[in-house]
Amino acid sequence: MKFTQMAKANEIERDWIVIDATDKVFGRIITEVATILRGKNKPYYTPHVDCGDYVVIINASKAKFSGNKLETKNYFTHSGYFGSTKTHKMSDMFENNPEKLYKLSTRGMLPKTTLGKNMLKKLKVYAGSDHPHTAQIKG
User: What is the CA radius of gyration of the chain?
Assistant: First the structure.
């Protein structure tokens, strides 16, 4: 009989993948990144093990948005106190801090556990084309 092999955390080899966001649709980038971070693109994907790769997104401020999401979509934050709901427009977040917007969007597609939190730590986002991870990236 053949059995499905379950990946073990100490046997996983992680790669570094660079994604250039120039003129790509924001949502398509995020779904691709979430798939890579979870490790679903690998043949030995195991749901309870962090088997994904590191992802570096460059030129994050040059992504495109489909429809009119930049003008209409809002993000809400709440501190827990009464009346402390704050609204942030997507266009303001994209102009001021695109790194935070990418991480927030990717976090919504990952598991809501400590495993998902550890997966999100492997995401590195940079607004420009320069990044300090050139030594880790092969070829």
Answer: 17
